[in-house]
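FAQ

Q: What does a record look like?
A: Structure on top, sequence underneath. For example:
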């Protein structure tokens, strides 16, 4: 989502969405804007990594081509020495 931080006349900040052409947050401090965006990014990454862990835990033949196990990683590490 394309966003822009806008300084309001009262010295506070707003977060404007260029997708919906509306404010997502208004009358916020710098810290509040950063915290809101960071929280959203955290939630997005949390979902992504939860999906990765679910995939790793499945018994799926395709997984063998895309996921290394611990022994494979250690072998690669030893080969680099």
């Amino acid at each position: 989502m394309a966003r822009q931080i806008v300084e309001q006349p009262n010295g506070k900040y707003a977060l404007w969405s260029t997708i919906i052409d509306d404010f997502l947050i208004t009358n916020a401090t710098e810290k509040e804007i950063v915290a809101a965006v960071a929280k959203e990014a955290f939630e997005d990454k949390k979902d992504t990594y939860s999906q990765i862990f679910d995939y790793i835990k499945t018994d799926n033949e395709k997984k063998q081509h895309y996921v290394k196990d611990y022994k494979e990683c250690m072998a690669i590490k030893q080969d680099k020495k």
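Q: Is there anything notable about this one?
A: The longest strand covers residues 22-28.
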